[in-house]
Every structure is written in structure tokens, then in C-alpha cells.
Design goal:
single chain, alpha/beta, 6-stranded mixed β-sheet, 6-stranded parallel β-sheet, 9 helices, globular
Length: 297
């Protein structure tokens, strides 16, 4: 089978499309014929070696953790899923023709494979950091870098929970944030004052790693109410860094519930074939994404 892998840490040029042995489902796992794989910032952060001290990777390594596809192998002790089912979920080395998933759910009928691949990690992350921020109905949450996949999920989930959201993004994505129920403003010079004019902030999320932790702490007045998924230095200022995966099966079930009820939709900004994985990483790292980027197999 074909898969994308890297044998050394570095830039996108270390990614290569190679022939590899097919993986097989172990106990509690399934294997899917991959139709699409989600592109997440963690993918290129791992490729660059950013997490080697906390999450070591043995080289050579595959890339990707989210996928949608058709079940073609079911491991021992797995119930409720059969060969031929359309699923989406989380596993490893998903930029490939076949991948093993450790957590999955049946795809809502309304989703294409490309759309479904963009949900697993995004929804799990959104639910986890909303909980860590401790924000409740009637309060206001500030989301820095709100137009990407996680931001899109956060805005919609909090809107359903009765939480007011202020989102920052580039000028081109202001209307997009408003369409998801957020109070929108641009980042850049003067952004802190623009946020203050929109309201008192009870908690804040840093999704882009743009060096704004100090300002988020200032706006909330409490570093414990600031959570980052992109700035490893956040704890130095008393804020939380969230990098440990939560309950993925529970997150997938919640994603299905919200999607089925029409309460969650994350658009796919761009799709790439396996051979263009380096370009997908370049674009993901550049930011300014509206929704998700996915690899199509």
C-alpha cells in the first residue's frame, strides 16, 4: 500500500510517499480502507520534532491520526461494527491507503468522507479545552485564532451551550466567525482594546500559538482560565497547556449528535492527494484556515 512517512525530523520536504506493508487490526481495533485523512497542526509539529521530549516518535514514522473510510477488517473483542461500514475516527498513520483506528463512530449520512475526516481530533480537542477553561452558560469565552477547525467547533459547541464567544481572526474571516455566532474582531495592533469593547472576558483559548498568552491572562484576570493548544510556554505564565488527548469515543458520539441535529458543521477549505501532503502541511502551518484541510486517498 501507499503511505506518507518521514525518516528524519524537519520541514515538509522530509515527507515521502512510500510503499509500505499493510497494517492489521489488533484486539479492540478496526482497519479501514482510508478515503480521507484530516490534516491537523499536531501532524506537522510531530514531523518537526517539537514533541520529542514529551511524546517521543520512533523513526521512520507514518503521519496523521484522523481518518474516514470503509471498514475492511475487525479486530478481536470488537462489537457493533462490521466490514463495509462507513466510519470516521482516530488512529495512527492515517495518510495512507489503509489505517488502523482505535476509536471510531459510524459516519452521519449527511457527511462526505472528506467532511468526516475533519472532525475526530477537532471535536475532541474543542470539548476538552472548553471543559478545562471552566466556562459556563452565561459567561464569555475569548478564542484567539478562531477560524480553523478547532475554533469552528468551539464556536458552535459553546453557542449551543449558551456561552458568548469573542473570536479573533484575519480580516477575511470576520463574517465567517459571525456566521457561527461569535462576536468577531481582527488580531493585530490594538486587538486587546477591540476585545475589551466587545465585553468582559471570563476565560480564553489560544488556538494559534501567536504569542498572546500574556494578553489573554490580562483580559481574563486569571491565568488558570487561559488554555492553549499551541504554545508550549503557556505554563510559564500560569496558563494551561492542553496536549493530552481526552475521551475520543465520547467526543465522536457528541460529534454525531451535534451533526445529526444540524448544530455542527465544519467546512473543508481544501483537499490534497496523498502525494501533496507536504503542501498540506505548508498551508496548515501558515494558518488563516477557514475550517479544515484534508488528504484524499
Amino acid at each position: 500500500m501507499k503511505r506518507v512517512s518521514f525518516a528524519e525530523f524537519g520541514g515538509p520536504d522530509v515527507l515521502h510517499l512510500e510503499d509500505a506493508e499493510e497494517p492489521h487490526a489488533g484486539p479492540g481495533q478496526i482497519r479501514v480502507a482510508v478515503r480521507a485523512a484530516g490534516v491537523n497542526p499536531v501532524d506537522w509539529r510531530i514531523r518537526e520534532g517539537q514533541f520529542q521530549k514529551v511524546r517521543p516518535v520512533e523513526l521512520p514514522a507514518g503521519v496523521g491520526q484522523d481518518a474516514s473510510g470503509v471498514v475492511d477488517e475487525v479486530g478481536e473483542h470488537v462489537e457493533g461494527v462490521e466490514v463495509g461500514d462507513r466510519v470516521f475516527g482516530r488512529g495512527s498513520s492515517t495518510y495512507a491507503e489503509f489505517a488502523v483506528l482505535a476509536a471510531w463512530a459510524r459516519m452521519p449520512e449527511s457527511l462526505t468522507f472528506e467532511e468526516a475526516a475533519g472532525y475526530p481530533s477537532v471535536v475532541e480537542t474543542a470539548l476538552r479545552i472548553i471543559g478545562q477553561a471552566g466556562v459556563q452558560s452565561g459567561q464569555t469565552l475569548l478564542v484567539s485564532g478562531a477560524s480553523g477547525g478547532v475554533g469552528s467547533a468551539v464556536l458552535q459547541i459553546t453557542h449551543e451551550r449558551g456561552i458568548t464567544v469573542i473570536g479573533t481572526a484575519g480580516a477575511a474571516n470576520q463574517e465567517y466567525l459571525r456566521s457561527l455566532g461569535a462576536l468577531a474582531t481582527t488580531y493585530g495592533e490594538g486587538w486587546v482594546e477591540r476585545v475589551r469593547r466587545l465585553g468582559q472576558v471570563d476565560a480564553a483559548l489560544d488556538l494559534a500559538g501567536a504569542g498572546v498568552i500574556r494578553e489573554l491572562v490580562e483580559l481574563t484576570g486569571d491565568p488558570r482560565r487561559v488554555v492553549s493548544i499551541a504554545d508550549l510556554g503557556a505554563p510559564e505564565l500560569g496558563a494551561q497547556y492542553s496536549g493530552v488527548t481526552g475521551n475520543v469515543p465520547q467526543a465522536l458520539a457528541e460529534a454525531v449528535r451535534l451533526i445529526t441535529r444540524g448544530k455542527l458543521h465544519i467546512p473543508v477549505e481544501k483537499s490534497y492527494p496523498l502525494a501533496e501532503a507536504p503542501a498540506a502541511h505548508i498551508d496548515s502551518r501558515a494558518g488563516h484556515t477557514r475550517g479544515r484541510r484534508v488528504i484524499v486517498v
